[in-house]
Specification:
10 helices; about 50% helix; alpha/beta; two-stranded parallel sheet; about 280 residues
Length: about 280
Amino acid sequence: MTLMELKEQRPHWSYSSLNSLLSVCSLAWAFERHWKVQAEGPLPGALTFGSAFHRALEYQATARMDGQQVKEGDLQDLFDTVLRRQVEEDGEVDFGDQDLDATAGQGRDLIACYMANVDPEERVLAVNHTFCVPLVKADGTVLDKPLIGEADCIVQNGKRAVVDWKSAGQRYSDQKVRTSMQATAMLMGVNRTFGPVDEFRFDLVVKLKRAPAFEQYHAVRSEDDYTRLAAMAAVADRIVEAEAFHPNEAGFACAGCRYKAACKAWHRDRDRVVSVAAQ
């Protein structure tokens, strides 16, 4: 099944949903996913950029899996085309202090950096591998909602690795990699549905001022990490059931949040916010 088909099949958890609820802002999660409040303002440019970047790397990985090679210039052109088409589909997009042309140029540089660092000996085993697996707590309790997800790429060069493609404005810290919920979710899902893999790997292209840089970060997980993830999902279930949502005003995502008006009014007229969303 495609990821969209899995989402429509039954209630579920995903890494992004759990992370948004538990680690980013539970109130923003509720506005978007629980109460379905209309978002305000332009779409963050990082989302549109990331979507185009992912589509380009997906294309080259699929070609490699089929024994074909993609030229750097062709992949840059594909990124440029997808980015501009995505902007047309998304409508108003905020790229900060850059215009669309500058953003496209930056993306072309990131594609070139990535292509210069692709390991020619690494074999691509799967692209966009979807999974739906049960969440099982340490005492054996199986949660009602399964975990669904989609791994960007599975590769092998000696070790088997689940790869996630990223672009970001700064390098990752050791703590970010060590505690990444995404690494846990992807390794559990792929191990349960594809077969044994040794590690999770972030392939990150960093948007530095002078020139982009390519970084790889490796993470491993155990069965105990998987039962811990299930326990966190059980907590998330209780939060949603009780509607115990609250703002995280010190969080990194607050500045670019698209629910600022609803958040500002939440403590005064929560009932009105919910009733409007339900209409």
